[in-house]
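2024-03-11 09:14:02 DEBUG pipeline.ingest accepted 1 chain
2024-03-11 09:14:02 DEBUG pipeline.ingest length=129
2024-03-11 09:14:03 DEBUG pipeline.predict start
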Amino acid sequence: MSDSLLFSVSYLSESVTNCHRLKLLAADGKKYLTDVADPETILRLVQSVPSPRAELIKLWLAKVGYERMQDMADPSLSVDRARQFWQQHGRSEKWIQQRMMGGRKPEINSLIASDNFLPPVKKKHLKDK
C-alpha cells in the first residue's frame, strides 16, 4: 500500500482515502509510521463506527451540527453562544465586550503600531509609473 490507507465502510457507499502515514515520534523515542487524517476524515470515520462506545461522540456531533444550522439561520445565536462560553471560562465582562467589539489586547495594539511588526513596503511615486 502506498502513502494512503484505504478504509472501506460498506454502508457509506464511498471509501475514505484521506488517511496518510507519517513517521511520528513514539514514547520509546523511535519514529514509527502512523496513520493520520484531517479532522473531517476522522469525524466521518467516527460516524461510521457501529459501536455503543462511539455513541457519545456521535451525539456530540449531532448537537454541534444542529447548533451550526441554528447559527446559519440566526447569526446572533453564535454571538450569544460565544459570550456564554467565555463567561463559563471565567472571562470578565470587560474582556468579553472587548472581543465582541473586535478589540485586541493593548500589548497587541502596541506591537502592531510598532515599526517592527511588518516588513517595510517600497513606496512608489507617481512619476515612477
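2024-03-11 09:14:41 DEBUG pipeline.report DSSP finds five helices and three strands in the chain.
2024-03-11 09:14:41 DEBUG pipeline.predict end
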